[in-house]
């Protein structure tokens, strides 16, 4: 790429050379121009803009600073001009193009900042205080959908809505979005009072714990759930409560069954019994062709929900992958490790995962809820899977630590190298929403009721070996480790412990 310098015939119009990091601004529009002015007027920021990049060939100088070339010349300009910092000041830039520009700048050795798209809608000039440091999520290059259609809002508007697992990452975002659509009541259920305390403060701005909308309850307690449903008569239920950490459930499968399977059955039966209009289960991509206790318990939860279709309550499940911002998420851990010069731990060099922001996921859950009728499993469009090694390397380069160390720990029991959203036998059926597909999932087992009773009995006795066998009988795709040979099954009957 040939480096283009425009309008360098006169040096008399140049401003005095400011002190600070040599800063190149990408984008010479209103946002970039206002930002440059702000930085020049405020030397304390430590950023000294000396020029722009812009694809408009008619722009040669903007506020006395030269336009040094098009966006494609970024790497060349960074090298030629010894640029310290690159600021991308095009708020409307599509995520994929933004991610590509950020990587180019980082590969050239510059530090990177950018103006988020939110500021494109702000009716004032962009200021230096608007600058964001690059976060791991910026590198995913996803076009997000946050707009929920009016018809979808009517699902919760004026209704009594119950959210289980309300204090978790998904549950709390569900509460925030549902509340904005003016339900007649929003009941927030969690077994952890500390979660409810924090949630009330986030959602309402107060945390006195003095409202009947906060419900302390355990979804394993059927009698307590019947009391809640009989008293409050929720019309719409979003069931987000679950054990979700794969390694822990491999160690403690009985607990996964008690919460993810039995708890779901308690809730959906209470909903049907007490005339709930709509019931939506929050599921996971790990339910597709499950190899883990988490995936198997979530597929069973989907089956239980579907088994209650046609009983007066519109039921459905929504399946998606990793949610950015959830507790203990890989991206947060990665950013912490890199910031503290620690090796980043990844299970395998080839592992990849789907990612979606919690805001987008919940918005699409609400859209799917409007379509749920007969036990469908809805699958959200997660975009392309992201290779974890590439994500770490790109992020480390952007924050100025290109020599990051990566430590490979090996796939954990039950963990997949590559996640899928659909099982091989599942049909991907388009819906009226471009980001949501549907599938009927696995066939309901003839012995579902009997099998669940046996599964719950094994879980009640905290018999991990029996729990794994019972799940394998109900979910044929689930083949737990060391359960593929009769001799191994006999051996594990005597050797397996709950903390195996």
UniProtKB/TrEMBL annotation:
Pfam families: CoA_binding_3 (PF13727), Polysacc_synt_2 (PF02719). InterPro entries: NAD(P)-bd_dom_sf, Polysac_CapD-like, Polysaccharide_Synthase-Rel. Gene3D superfamilies: NAD(P)-binding Rossmann-like Domain. Residues 161-438 form the Polysaccharide biosynthesis protein CapD-like domain. It comes from the Bacteria. Belongs to the polysaccharide synthase family. This is NDP-sugar epimerase, includes UDP-GlcNAc-inverting 4,6-dehydratase FlaA1 and capsular polysaccharide biosynthesis protein EpsC. It comes from Streptacidiphilus jiangxiensis. The lineage of its organism: Bacteria, Bacillati, Actinomycetota, Actinomycetes, Kitasatosporales.
